[in-house]
Predict the structure.
Amino acid sequence: MLALALALAAAAADTLAPAAAQEGPAVVVHRQPALPVVAVRLSVLADDPPGHAGAGHLLQHLHLPRLEEQAARVGGRVQAVRSADAVVYTAVGPAAELDYLAGLLRSALRPPTPSPAEMLSALRALADERGAEREIAPSYVRAALRAALFPGDVPAAGTGLSAQRLEAASLPALWGEMYRPERVAVVAVGDVELEGVRRAFAELPPAGGGGLAELPADTLPPLAADTPQATRAWIGAAYPTEGAGPAALTVAARLLRNRMQSRMTRSQVAVEHWWTHHGQALAIVVATPDSLAATARRTVEGALAALSGALAEDAVRDAAAAVRRDMLFFSRTPERMAEVLGTFADRGEGEDAAQRFFEALEEVTLAEVRGVLDLLAAQEPVQVFVAAQRLVAR
Amino acid sequence: MRRGLLLAALAALPAAGAAAQERVLVRSEPGTPVVAVEVLVAVGAADEPEAQAGIAYLAARSVAAPLRPLLDSLGVRLEVVPHKDALSLTLIAAPDAWREASQALLVALFRDPVDSVATVRARQALVAELEAREASPADALARQVDAAVFGEGHPWGRPAVGTARTVGRLRVAQVDSFLRRAFTPERAVVAVVGPVEPEEAREHVGLFLLDGALGLPPVEPPQPADSVVRTDYDAITAWVSASWHFGPDADVGALRMLAGLAIERTSFGPSRPSVYNARSEVVRHAGGGEMRLHLVVPPREAEQWAARLREAVAAYAGAPLPAAQFAERLRRFRGERLLELDAPEARARAMAREALLGGRPDRLADYEGLTAERLQQAARALDPPVLVFLGPFPDPEESE
């Protein structure tokens, strides 16, 4: 565990927030001199304007082709992600191209000026993403659980109604509602120094004007009317976890998955810790052969009680160690390390949130996990069931 | 593998000798969160009787399978990849787990007999995979190109994974015998990349390698086809492959750049809408290597695209690129090469392969010092390629 602890400690030491009498965004640098490469992650902490769900992601679709083409000129690559917390762009390339890559990312902080064809293409991409979420069972179950737990967390692609408004809206006005220089955070991982990164992002575009009509918040069309494709039965259950310690909740999720998977050998089991600025939840998603659906539903319903009765100190310790190792494995490239550091910071928990979480995992106790399970057991879970579709013989 | 067996084997280990440690490469990277261990064993088709093609890969998978529970408990990933001339076993582990994981792997590779149940299961799984693969046109093309580039009778002309037929006939005793005979420590190179102390890591890994210099089995020179190879394949597209052989003294960095530039000139684009797919690779092996370019195109255009591939390479042989143009291309190539190495396991693999071929494992970046003149020289030094076509071959007399 030493490496990430050291890595994250280094990130903390190199962190510079705007409050420290510096101009520009909050910058975190994790120096990784192993290879002359840098991953730069820029996030704008913003929700979509009310009535315009999908705005952030639409702008990403409009910016991305140009960013990809420009990054390719230096052998680099760019990705754009609209998380529940932020509009995120990540550029990776040679460390010697830091200023060039930073310039690319800064250009995404200005509203795009698309041609009509580009606008149509981006709106089409959003529509495809909205359709895909409801088309197949794995994404449908998660979307339905999320919609019930966090009604304010509208999917990145927005809704059909908001898409119509986006088509008509002024892009500068949309972006003007979302963007402020002080909402920008930068995480850089690689063979770069803090001073160089800070300099590369010292000048950000100013905030734009408003002018967007005030509208009520978006609401997600009900998912119940959709029939997702499912070759197996899908069972979803999710528990709101207000007040649970994130590290203990992650360990509880791992223990629950281990136990359920060992007992449901013909099923696919996922137990996930959802964590955004909207809140936290623990979600269970199971896919099972149709013939086992009734048994599987009972197993899901009794899963928390069964785990609670079988908790042991060494199992908690092993699960925490496994989560820590998974974090290390995931973070093994500069791009992934930047994603981990940035995702934790975007939740508003501070720039050192990732290392605090990593350290907290080692301290998780049996009593804390039991406390989380008791908290979950006291909640009424949201439940979703998708039956397996059957082929009709002709 | 049972822990008891592993510990007993460890007790019998001699101290690491200096020569053994020379086959252990360590790249200490304090900021990297995991340790990647690449065990590259120079065992491949050249060691296999033709009727037992694939036995090396099956042996490696049979060794790996019983380790999985232990590795899973340590959160360690293990990947086994066959090459023509070697087997690559890659571990990715947390810093507190890499010693135990690498110890288990090296003992299982070089000291333990194979587990018969694991071997039978690995054989069944491999046969199922090969049956699925053999139906793929990409796999068929690779088989045809290998046979054309190295020669029908050359061991590297056969698939490194064997075939469903040859693997399905392999017995446990044959696998065990092959493992004991061919998987020997003096054929192995181990690269460790991550937050490790170099001396400590070298000492740890060196314990499992016998003393002695790297011993590679001799491989006969390739006997490439001297005419175009055409293979009928029932498909609506055609696959075109051009392979340029190069010798041991070739400028590999320049050839990698050349391959990228040439494939860019023949890839899908507004002026090349009929190219469905394009890919390039530069593969090194003992005695040189080859630069391969592949295209997927409409069958009627296959011959035309083969000519375009040759022209795309020849275009760089005529005169050095103008300085500004070369600088722009090099800038892109440098970034692409760096990003290919952004994971620690990629760096470990590159180091081990370099060491196996007698190169400079400390130099990961082969773009350094590239010039327009070197690019031109690399293109000029190439002999005509071996061409392979796979697909339906329409009768030229047939009307449109």
Residues 1-15 of chain B have pLDDT under 50 and may be disordered. The radius of gyration of chain B is 23 Å.
